[in-house]
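agent> Task received from the user: take the single chain below, predict its 3D structure, and emit structure tokens. No templates, no multimer pairing.
agent> Plan: (1) validate residues, (2) run structure prediction, (3) serialize to tokens, (4) report one or two observations.
agent> Step 1 OK, no nonstandard residues flagged.
tool_call: predict_structure(input=
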Amino acid sequence: MVATPLIKVSRTAVSTRLNGEETEFLCEPRQSLLECLRDNVGLTGTKEGCNDGNCGACSVLMDGRLVNSCLVLGVEAEGAEITTVEGLATPQGLHPLQQSFLEQAALQCGICTPGFLVAAKALLDQEPNPTEHQVRFWLAGNLCRCTGYDKIVRAVLHAAAIQRGAVPSEATAASTDGHST
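)
tool_result: status=success, residues=181
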């Protein structure tokens, strides 16, 4: 029997700004950003769907740009600003997109929801008053196997209106009239 030599895999320290906080993690050169976020950092909101860039479940913002984290190497996050679904809410409450997805019942199993939320945030960061066509076009890289897309599109349009101050969210309305939802 011939002994197989052990191959030492080097790990690289990556410093990044993750959801507004300076973060450092170790990763192997072959690891995707998705694997690093989930396995090395412990942020499991970003989901693995297809692992080949087709479904959008792993969508994150990298330096303000929407990317599929399964297609980005973890080492490429060096010096970058990364926003995951965990970075959308604040201590004061849910992001208007998250609140709107709840209010509009725009989710079912939840595997695709984080990717849709991050993709929708990227859209609203660029276009605060999108048309239905723009929302559908922008979210075309995100797949959902449970729902039709109408509730998701309505939720994004509703969140855009909330962010512009055109309509209050149900949570805001409930907190101002003394009732809870």
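agent> Step 4: summary for the user.
The first helix runs from residue 33 to 41.
agent> Done.
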